[in-house]
Design the sequence.
């Protein structure tokens, strides 16, 4: 009789435990870019690992500050509650653990098989994981190129080549202002062709649109506590082209007979360029916004004249 009573008690205990477990809700990552498992409930805390989209996890504790304490693949940390939702298709956390365990077993088997393949496959997997994590956190390391529209000085196209070590090449090309350069008589006579003032008399000019080309090398630093936001600095060269039509009188003989003429020339300015700016990389969307200020120090043809410049824009990254 005692043995039967003990058996009934054990049976009821396990039935009650099963009902308790089944009453708990299972959770999964809803963000398409995955979620960062952090050591503490803040975006500034160190990332333990990146949980892929749709992965099952166990919620240990819900905080009122927008963070869940969770367990994933034997690791415990914090995930933003906005990236997690209840898994309506699976309500048993033990099944969640089992699925994660099976996923781990499959991954281990895959890794075991991959170890017999060429070593570059594991390197590709690591690079792919790093790229996914970088895109989720809004890092420029996730992309190789960016192209977009720049407003300011110059107004035109901006192209950026991202490097893996938080550096980049930037090229801006577009229309620019003339910075107050007056094509007066002194500028006319500086050309060797017109330096004989007895034969040439300056009459006027018509300037065209100025085109500017900036080529820079940049260093980027992420801003702590602001995901996706970084500041950058760097330098390079800038060259500017302005077409000009000169009007003048030409005295073609000693009798001072003259004729009216008009020539086209191109004024070229070349100098150094220093820049400081901010860039914001959006999460899960390949767009970035930037804002910068720079100084252009002209070397040719007005040495050491300094012009302040700046601009803002948007890029599509890929």
Sequence:
């Amino acid at each position: 009789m005692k043995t039967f009573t003990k058996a009934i008690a054990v049976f009821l205990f396990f039935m009650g435990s099963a009902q308790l477990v089944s009453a708990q809700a299972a959770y999964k990552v809803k963000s398409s870019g995955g979620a960062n498992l952090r050591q503490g409930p803040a975006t500034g805390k160190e990332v333990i690992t990146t949980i892929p989209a749709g992965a099952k996890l166990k919620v240990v504790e819900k905080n009122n500050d927008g963070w869940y304490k969770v367990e994933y693949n034997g690791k415990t940390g914090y995930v933003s509650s906005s990236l997690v939702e209840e898994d309506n298709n699976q309500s048993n956390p033990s099944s969640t653990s089992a699925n994660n365990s099976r996923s781990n077993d499959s991954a281990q088997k895959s890794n075991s098989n991959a170890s017999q393949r060429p070593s570059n496959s594991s390197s590709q997997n690591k690079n792919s994981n790093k790229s996914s994590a970088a895109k989720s956190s809004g890092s420029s390391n996730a992309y190789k190129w960016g192209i977009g529209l720049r407003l300011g000085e110059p107004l035109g196209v901006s192209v950026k080549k991202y490097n893996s070590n938080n550096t980049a090449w930037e090229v801006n090309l577009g229309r620019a202002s003339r910075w107050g350069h007056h094509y007066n008589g002194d500028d006319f006579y500086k050309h060797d062709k017109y330096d004989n003032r007895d034969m040439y008399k300056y009459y006027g000019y018509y300037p065209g649109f100025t085109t500017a080309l900036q080529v820079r090398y940049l260093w980027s630093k992420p801003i702590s506590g602001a995901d996706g936001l970084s500041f950058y600095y760097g330098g390079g060269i800038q060259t500017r082209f302005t077409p000009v039509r000169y009007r003048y009188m030409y005295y073609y003989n000693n009798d001072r007979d003259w004729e009216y003429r008009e020539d086209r020339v191109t004024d070229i300015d070349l100098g150094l360029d220093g820049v400081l700016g901010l860039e914001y990389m959006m999460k899960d969307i390949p767009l970035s916004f930037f804002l910068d200020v720079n100084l252009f120090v002209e070397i040719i043809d007005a040495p050491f004249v300094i012009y302040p410049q700046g601009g803002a824009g948007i890029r599509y990254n890929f």
